[in-house]
């Protein structure tokens, strides 16, 4: 999705002057430049353009109220003097993962008098000797560099890189759907387990009934066999008596 379309979608029927936070991460910039942003975003305080293929910030509009600018994972190698002109009140700037190689590239940032936090993770400039000491000298207004102050104390959460307020509503909706599914799943499992238990109990009862019927049939059959045996024995004895009587008469 290109940057202009993404901005249109992010507006969600709002006017640019109503927007205070704008997240454009992972969309496509045209020729490595910012497009679709205008001076109408006069209330914008937070702008995130992570991994959009930027090579320049020259097209950034005038954003007097912008406080936090996220430019990480792009291909910016210079032209930062524009920031002092376009975003004079910037306090947090993240340039991690860009092509910044030397201190002269970030020198224009000293005109950003309100700049409090600067991040340059994964930039070649961090490999220079005495990198941290020299950056703090070059930009005396800085409190935190790469998340730590001059005494190597970590920045508090309020000054950390992650800006929770920059999350998309879509991400929040996805989280809510996942939570809903997680909540619903146990109930479904319980119902299935209860149904299985009831079905098993029903099968056991049926087996018991069948077993009982079989036992009764066996008892009846046994009884019938015994009756037949008694009857045959009685007939045999009667026949024997008759034969004995006939023999006596013949005598």
UniProtKB/TrEMBL annotation:
Residue intervals of the U2A'/phosphoprotein 32 family A C-terminal domain: 128-146
Single Gene Ontology BP annotation: regulation of apoptotic process
Gene Ontology cellular component annotations, sorted alphabetically: nucleus
Highest taxon above the source species: Eukaryota
Coiled-coil intervals: none
Comp. bias (Acidic residues): 157-233
NADP among keywords: no
One family name in Pfam for this protein: LRR_9
Subcellular location as annotated: Nucleus
Chain residue ranges for the region called Disordered: 149-251
Molecular-function GO terms, alphabetical: histone binding
PANTHER family: ACIDIC LEUCINE-RICH NUCLEAR PHOSPHOPROTEIN 32, ACIDIC LEUCINE-RICH NUCLEAR PHOSPHOPROTEIN 32 FAMILY MEMBER A
Name this polypeptide is given: Acidic leucine-rich nuclear phosphoprotein 32 family member
Highest classification ranks of the organism: Eukaryota, Metazoa, Chordata, Craniata, Vertebrata
């Amino acid at each position: 999705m290109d940057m202009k379309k993404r901005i249109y979608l992010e507006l969600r029927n709002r006017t640019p002057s109503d927007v205070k936070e704008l997240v454009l991460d992972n969309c496509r910039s045209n020729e490595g430049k910012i497009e679709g942003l205008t001076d109408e975003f006069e209330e914008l305080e937070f702008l995130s353009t992570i991994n959009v293929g930027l090579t320049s910030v020259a097209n950034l509009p005038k954003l007097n109220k912008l406080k936090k600018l996220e430019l990480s994972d792009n291909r910016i190698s210079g032209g930062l003097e524009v920031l002092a002109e376009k975003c004079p009140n910037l306090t947090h700037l993240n340039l991690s993962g860009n092509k910044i190689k030397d201190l002269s590239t970030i020198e224009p940032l000293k005109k950003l008098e309100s700049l409090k936090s600067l991040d340059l993770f994964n930039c070649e400039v961090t490999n220079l000797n005495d990198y941290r000491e020299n950056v703090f000298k070059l930009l005396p207004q800085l409190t935190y560099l790469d998340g730590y102050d001059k005494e190597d104390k970590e920045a508090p959460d309020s000054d950390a890189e992650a800006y929770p307020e920059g999350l998309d509503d879509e991400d929040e909706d996805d989280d809510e759907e996942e939570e809903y599914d997680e909540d619903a799943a146990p109930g479904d499992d319980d119902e299935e387990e209860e149904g299985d238990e009831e079905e098993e109990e029903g099968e056991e009862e049926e087996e018991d009934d069948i077993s009982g019927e079989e036992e009764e049939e066996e008892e009846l059959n046994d009884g019938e066999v015994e009756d037949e045996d008694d009857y045959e024995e009685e007939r045999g004895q009667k026949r024997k008596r008759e034969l004995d009587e006939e023999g006596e008469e013949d005598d």
